[in-house]
Amino acid sequence: MRSGIGARAVVLGGSITGLFAAAALAPSYREVVIVDRDRLVGVREWRRGAPQTRHINGLLARGHQALEELFPGITEEMADDGIPFSDLSGTVRWYFYGKRLQQLRGGLSCVAATRPMLEYHVRRRVEAMANVTFLEECDVVGLTTSPDRARVTGARIHRRKADSNARRKAETAEEVIEADLVIDTTGRGSRSPKWLVELGYQRVEEQGTKVGIGYASRHYKLTTDPFGKDHSINPVASPTLPRGAIFTKTDSGMVELTTYGILGDHPPTDPEGFNAFVKTLAAPEIHEAISVAEPIDDIALFKFPTTMWRRYDLMETLPERLLIMGDAVCTPNPVYAQAQSLSALEALALRERLSAGRAPDTPEFQRAVADIIRPAWEMTTAVDLGFPGVEGERTPKVRMMHVFSRLLHDAATRDGRFTAAFMRVAGLVDPPTALQRPGLVLRVLRDAVGVRLSRFLARRRGGSA
Fold it and tell me: I need a labelling partner for 5 at 20 to 30 A (CA). Which of 72, 274, 406, 414 fits?
């Protein structure tokens, strides 16, 4: 264990990003403290402080690889606990523009755990690290800094304790946790932008796209088998039908259904309306299955109005010894399931910098985080702009991508190799530029020409008859 960088690192936020960060920090600091407003240790249920835990939270293929790098052997542990794994291009049944893609195993393993179960397994690994402690049921109220405000020296917190009626939580006096490094992983609601302004730094620029997504989730015990050899059935929203879903096998013998609509077309939360919404999807087998399945819980709705990227990488100055990661920096469109995987990659970037034996340089690290985010952000933002009602600039590059994507997905309905190529990019294994390789572009164009030629010849033969 390396412990020469500092005495204590403090992680604000104990969700999945905070756990990934703690794992990266533990070899380099004598003590790592995770602060969170919820009770965490031993929890296997939905957490009030993380409302999205009621919904599907995917860990994509590259995210799964990063998870195994951070916690060697965790895949086997989760599998032993009944958590299934799927192949993104081989055992996931995809529908694009209402058409089913051909499948081909591509070695793109994805974790199909519910969010609470994934957190539980990762947290258990972090708990086993002797120098990591959890400070639960605490509110973070601010940062402490050096007199010149050039360096963060800790965090100010309030512990919450039960009052005499044992029904509510009352705040204790403010405490300061001193730290050699503070990492903000508190999610989209992060108050770092406000704290930085109060410390005299510039306001961070925010970018985003109004997508108006609402998604509703429910869990079931099935009485029929719509999956066959597959693990998941995913009809993807398209401009012609801006509704989609992820219907997947998950832990505890359950199936998890999250269905969504774009630009305000949100699923109802009453069972009849929810089922009617699902019936409109491109994959009829989902509605057929849930109509006779046993619901395990009520329908939960989550609204996501805009994507968001806080551009800390563009700030002129930042205080030393403060890093910001995960959703506190960027919350991409959730239907692409990128957030957890990006957090895992950011944790690997943190671990790499700590391996040099010194605390990361804040501006350099935030630029590295931006480099991780950028390819995924640009790709999914371009996809969002394929919906006519989404506001944003449709450059010639974006329009060309829309045309090529449509051709690629059409080719994938006939050949699983195209599905695998696309899913390697969607799974963050390959960069988006992989779809611009001349060989792939040529094969897609050849497929499109071949289809059109076949249709032309068929019409000629029909006319001759």
Answer: 72
Q: HSE of 162 in the Cβ direction (CA atoms, 13 Å)? A: 5
Q: Per-residue b/e over 243-263, b at no fewer than 16 CB within 10 Å?
A: bbbbbbbbbeebbbbbbbbbb
d(CA 234, CA 221): 18
Which one, of 244, 404, 253, lies nearest residue 337 by Cα?
A: 244
Which residues of the chain are under the pLDDT cut of 50? 1, 163-164, 166-167, 465
284-291 helix and 271-279 helix, angle to the nearest 10 degrees? 150
| Contact (Cβ atoms closer than 8 angstroms) between residue 343 and residue 325 | yes
What is the distance in angstroms between the CA of the first residue and the CA of the last residue of the chain?
Answer: 80
Residue whose entry in the numeric block shows the structure tokens 């405000």: 149
CA distance linking residue 240 with residue 231, whole number of Å = 26
**Taking a C-beta distance cutoff of 8 angstroms, is the pair 155, 177 a contact?**
yes
210-221 and 255-261 strand pairing? antiparallel
Helices (H) and strands (E) in the chain — how many of each? Answer: 12, 22
DSSP 8-class letter at 302: E
Q: CB-based burial of residue 361 (10 Å sphere; 0-12 exposed, 13-18 middle, 19+ buried)?
A: middle
Closest C-alpha to 33, from 157, 141, 160: 157
Encode 95-110: b = buried (16+ Cβ within 10 Å), e = exposed. bbbeeebbbbebebbb
Could you tell me where the beta strands, DSSP code E, fall in 27-171? 29-35, 85-87, 92-96, 99-100, 109-111, 132-135, 138-145, 152-162, 169-171
CA distance 281 to 55: 18
153 vs 145: CA distance, rounded Å? 5
Q: Which domains does the chain have, with CATH numbers?
A: 6-59+116-207+307-378 (3.50.50.60), 85-109+393-465 (no CATH), 210-306 (3.30.9)
Distance of CA 437 to the CA centre of its chain: 27
Rounded Cα distance between 305 and 270, Å, is 21
Residues with Cβ within 8 Å of residue 279, at least 6 apart in sequence? 287
Are 309 and 330 spatial neighbours (Cβ–Cβ below 8 Å)? yes
In the block, tokens 């051709």 appear at: 407
Q: Which helix (H) or strand (E) holds 122?
A: helix 115-127
Q: How many residues does the chain have?
A: 465
Strands 330-331 and 255-261: unpaired
Q: Give the C-alpha separation, 248 to 315, whole Å.
A: 41
- Measured distance CA(218)–CA(247) in Å, rounded: 10
∠ CA 91-118-5, nearest 5°, is 125
Cα–Cα dist 143/335, whole Å: 33
pTM exceeds 0.90 for this model: yes
